[in-house]
Structures are given as C-alpha cells and as structure tokens.
Amino acid sequence: MSKTHYAIALEDLCAEIIVEGGQLADELRATDIASSSIGHGQFMRSIAFALVREGETGTLASDGPLHDLISFLENERESETLDIHSVFDGWHDPDGCAVGTVREERHLTARGSMICGYLNRLHILRQKRRILLARIQAERIINRKLGY
Asked: Rounded distance, CA 116 to CA 32, Å?
C-alpha cells in the first residue's frame, strides 16, 4: 500500500474508496463469476452488502460484508486452480546453504485469473478503507484531547 494514502486529504481518500467500490461493484455484477445459480444469488447479495448499500457505499461499513465477498471469491478461485507448485524464492549462499523462502504458486484457468484480479482489487480496497477508518479515529482522538 502506498504511503500517499496516509498523506492525502480524508475527503479525497473517502471519494477514491467510494468511486473504486462503485466501479468494482459494477464490474462484478457484469461478470458471471458464480459457478452455480445458488452461488450467483449469494454473490449478488455479497456485492450489495459489501460495496453498495441503498444507493450509498457499503465500503465504509464494517469489514464483515467485504470479508464475505472476498471469502466467496477465494472459494471460487479454489475451484479454478489447476495446479499448485512450490517455488524457491532466494539464492544459494556460497557458504553452503540456500537463503530464501519457498512459496506456493497457483496455476489458474482463465476464469481463475479473472477472479484473482478482482480479489487483488478487493484486498487493496479493504486496505484503503482500513487506513481511512484509522485516520478518522486518530482525528477523533486528537479532537477530544484538544477539546473540540
């Protein structure tokens, strides 16, 4: 997450979150991500609660609905995983040992890659929302201390 989200005006950050949440909701509604009709209904309800609620943004509400939407998409991504490989990310130290970590790399279908893209955007949106709420809370604390 970019440090600029800590420096821009609260109104600008809030507007950015609302616009991105609305755009993401529109894109998600237009795609056919759910693998079943029951899943489709759950998916549409998740979008409504997580991103748009009664004509206003839901992205500033609690994390619960956004978490539910992310969980739904993660489950859908699991069904689109073709294979998982372990990949070593590091280098060989001349003194005799490897330095680095082993991570899992997913090989996805085209639908899985699309879902992964939406998941990445939702994770970024959730992080921006958390930054916004932390900044609002910090401002409230400062105002109480100063007696405003």
From this structure: 14
